[in-house]
């Protein structure tokens, strides 16, 4: 939540799409006058929202198929997309593909829960109260199929926050290779990368200076 607040304060986004509202703790970080759009099949607004918000009680696939997203964004490119939904690799990848279609040169997409605590908590079927799922595989996938993207992961407790810059709404690589990509990465065991997480997930220190360097290099700040 602290990192979301830092991004919002620095970038002053015109709009935010958040996939996975849960109890609204993260959506409540979106400041006025940013337009906040939340998508979750079972949303629960417990934390008070600060700004104009539109919450859709549906899956992200349903949202992007049925809603006029450009109108919701008021004709502007997506400023920040935050993926924190089902925590399954193939769904997180689809969410990224959907969001990128609405991006511009200064857009930012964030993935939550990309640095698993251990093998048990990253399993696709949750076996513990705390679970990240296998969202981490999305990072490997993007690095493989979209090497031109700037993908890095902030080593923030407890389970990281991945940032993707240099987005290209005209790219159809993932759409063309989606089935292949899922088949390639869905069965990769966590043990295969556990000893080299820093390199595989492009980990950077939990500090603003490093993140700001990436944003500046892309002309975002």
Care to count the β-strands?
A: 8
Distance between the termini: 20 Å
Number of H- or I-type helical stretches: 8
Average pLDDT value? Answer: 96
In order across it, which strands form the biggest sheet?
3-2-1-4-5-7-6-8
Kindly state the percentage of residues in helix: 25-40%
Poorly predicted spans = none
SSE diagram, text form:
Blueprint: H1 2-11, E1 15-19, E2 35-39, E3 53-56, H2 60-66, H3 69-72, E4 78-83, H4 89-100, E5 103-112, H5 136-145, E6 150-154, E7 161-165, H6 173-185, H7 197-200, E8 203-204, H8 208-217
Parallel strand pairs: 1-2, 1-4, 2-3, 4-5, 6-8
Antiparallel strand pairs: 5-7, 6-7
Describe the model.
This protein is of the alpha/beta class and 221 residues long. It has 8 helices and 8 strands, in the order H-E-E-E-H-H-E-H-E-H-E-E-H-H-E-H. The protein has helices at 2-11, 60-66, 69-72, 89-100, 136-145, 173-185, 197-200, 208-217, and strands spanning 15-19, 35-39, 53-56, 78-83, 103-112, 150-154, 161-165, 203-204. An 8-stranded mixed β-sheet has the order 3-2-1-4-5-7-6-8, with helices on both faces. Helix 5 crosses helix 6 (173-185). The mean pLDDT is 96.
């Amino acid at each position: 939540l602290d990192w979301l607040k830092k991004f919002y304060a620095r970038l002053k986004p015109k709009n935010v799409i958040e996939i996975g509202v849960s109890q609204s703790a993260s959506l409540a970080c979106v400041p006025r006058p940013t337009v906040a759009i939340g998508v979750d099949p079972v949303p629960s607004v417990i934390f008070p929202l600060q700004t104009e918000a539109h919450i859709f009680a549906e899956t992200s696939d349903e949202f992007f198929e049925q809603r006029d997203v450009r109108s919701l964004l008021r004709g502007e490119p997506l400023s920040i997309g935050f993926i924190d939904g089902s925590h399954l690799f193939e769904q997180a990848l689809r969410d990224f593909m959907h969001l990128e279609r609405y991006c511009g040169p200064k857009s930012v997409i964030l993935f939550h829960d990309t640095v698993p605590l251990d093998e048990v908590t990253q399993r696709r079927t949750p076996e513990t109260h705390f679970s990240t799922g296998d969202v981490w595989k999305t990072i490997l996938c993007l690095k493989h199929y979209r090497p031109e993207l700037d993908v890095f992961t902030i080593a923030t407790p407890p389970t990281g926050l991945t940032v993707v810059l240099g987005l290209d709404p005209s790219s159809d690589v993932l759409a063309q290779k989606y089935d292949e990509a899922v088949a390639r990465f869905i069965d990769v065991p966590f043990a295969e990368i556990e000893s080299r997480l820093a390199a595989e997930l492009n980990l950077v220190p939990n500090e603003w200076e490093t993140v700001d360097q990436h944003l500046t290099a892309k002309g975002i700040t």
